[in-house]
Amino acid sequence: MSEELYEAVTGYCEDVLGGVREYPFGPSAGVYKVAGKMFALLAENADPPRLSVKLPPEEGLALRAEYPEHVLPGYHLNKRHWNTIVLDGALGREEVLALLRQSYDLVVAGLPKRLRPPAPDR
Fold first, then answer.
1. Which of 43, 94, 97, 113 is the most exposed place for a label (fewest CB within 10 A)?
2. Which CATH number characterizes residue 80's domain?
3. Is the per-residue pLDDT at 2 higher than 70?
4. What's the CA gap between 66 and 78, in Å, rounded?
5. Tens digits of residue pLDDT in 101-119
6. Whole-angstrom distance, CA of residue 33 vs CA of residue 13
7. What is the DSSP pairing of strand 20-22 with strand 71-73?
8. pTM of the full predicted structure?
9. DSSP state of 46
10. Per the domain annotation, does 114 fall within a domain?
């Protein structure tokens, strides 16, 4: 399940959201950015892979409580806003993609209006 979920995540980040993948932390951590700002970090060498996304603090805490083994405080990130999801199938494909979109939307909302890209589904 994790390989299928990994492929869904990378495809969604690149093809739907138009994210640019960079490797500022080395070859095993893909960082997806919009307008130069990170909205997702994918630990590609972890087994299973791990995805970090930005969420409202209360939602992140609720997910951590519901999935304590699968949603963790953001690894090497601001733990109030960033959450690391273990891509082992505990959270379904649609839920993971929805969290990715939410992270993307939060980051875009924080950009100056002149830098905000059009919504990817428009």
1. 113
2. 3.90.1150.30
3. no
4. 20
5. 999 999 999 999 988 888 8
6. 9
7. unpaired
8. 0.91
9. S
10. no
Is the residue at 116 inside a domain? no
**pLDDT tens per residue across span 80-96:** 899 999 999 999 999 99
Cα 122 to Cα 118: distance, rounded to the nearest angstrom: 7
- Contact between 53 and 85 (Cβ < 8 Å): yes
| 41: nearest Cα among 95, 105, 100 | 100
**95 occurs within a structural domain:** yes
Which two tokens mark 19?
């994210």
Q: In 3D, which of 105, 102, 98 has the Cα closest to residue 119? A: 105
Q: Which two tokens stand for residue 58?
A: 């209360």
- Give the structural domain span for 40: 2-109
d(CA 32, CA 21): 5
117 located within any domain: no
